[in-house]
Design a protein that fits this description.
- This protein is of the alpha+beta class.
- It is 34% helix and 21% strand.
- The strands form 2 sheets. A 5-stranded mixed beta barrel has the order 1-2-3-5-4. A 3-stranded antiparallel beta sheet has the order 7-6-8.
- Strand 4 (56-62) and strand 5 form a beta hairpin.
Amino acid sequence: MLYATRGIVFHTVRYAETSLIAKLYTSQFGLRSYLIKGVHTPRSRFKPALFQPLSLLELVVYNKERNSLQTIKEVQLNHPYQSVHLDIRKSAIALFICELAYKAIREEEPNRELFDFLWNSCIELDQAEGPVSHYHLFFALRLMHHLGIYPQRNLTPQTTIFNLREGVFQANIPGHTNYLDEADSVLFHQLLSVPDDAGVSSLKVILSPRKRDQILETILLYYKLHLPGFRDLQSHHILHTVLS
């Protein structure tokens, strides 16, 4: 049976000589793997460029619940990026967003709120006209909401130490090394307190490149502590270089 759905390309791998397998996050079905046959042949109806990481697609697909690989009947770009591929900073952030989403999202069931968040974040990044150097931090923090691992924002004059393992601010230093000191805990709480619907132009937090890198490493450690099987990222090393 045929279904219309939107999809975000997370990852592709070459299959045989002329085909590829694409992992997409779809609005209708959640995570799905699609076999695109003959995409690397001159007569293919589908161009490989359609399946670049983070491409935003309109699809008509076959969906058989018992199949691990689905197939695509029709595909076209919904939102051709205007600036992401021309701006090295946006390109690096897009690569990070794609890798983080790919490694963090494991549930195959559809989640429309999560899908809309990812879709709108990609468009927001593409359309941003001001500085975007902190955008990846806020994306990673907002994604925690949708994954159910968002920290408690319980900073008080008495609870000034952020415990990464428990996801809470507490009074005393815990008996392990996965915590932030008082200064970094206050800064982390400030980042957590930025409204989810704040646009790129309203992200007024100013961080030095070194502090920005440190906060990103803290966020990725938090993911690793709270998402079983979460694997190390590679794209954030590119961010450290490009955004410095």
